[in-house]
């Protein structure tokens, strides 16, 4: 049975990804940072639905790359012995312009959104030698909006890493990215703000969680694709 590790798997996009991969016959390792109750509830509900699988839950603070690799890859929960796919979904999204960004905010964005994904990708390649990696990016990678400067730069860096790793690790490990647009309102924003963001896209609609999850699935399942970024964003990237 194929196994996937999904970071930030307990809520929002991560939960949708977990449910889709579970429905398609995969064992899923559910990572969480602080959402223990949500992670365990999700695991339990999936165990009841698919009683031949385990859906283990693993906690790790992704602001500590070395610890994250140790917890998530070097100490895989029993009875699992390997991974077939890694999905770097977890991220932090803090508002701050370049002028406002202090060192602590900068480090947090880079650690969680770029450095730990890199360390997990590298460990996945070295430990298992084959499979698929999908990095969840952001449609912001195509513009220079500085309202979330450190966040955007961390995702731009992860995009370049995605393509560099795809080239170096071919043909054994495929590495791709999905850049979502308006999927869910960010923390602190209401539905009115979110609807306006969606209305500004060419398709004038929000991105459904099912659509985003299907994009990730496509990149994991299609063995002929590597080094690609799918913009699942209602066309937002076309606005620049």
UniProtKB/TrEMBL annotation:
GO molecular function: oxidoreductase activity
Keywords tagged on the record: Oxidoreductase
Gene3D superfamilies assigned: NAD(P)-binding Rossmann-like Domain
Top-level taxon: Bacteria
Keyword Oxidoreductase among UniProt keywords: yes
Residues of the signal peptide: none
Family stated for the protein in its record: Belongs to the short-chain dehydrogenases/reductases (SDR) family.
Name under which the protein is recorded: FolM Alternative dihydrofolate reductase 1
Organism listed in the record: Geofilum rubicundum JCM 15548
Taxonomic lineage from the root: Bacteria, Pseudomonadati, Bacteroidota, Bacteroidia, Marinilabiliales
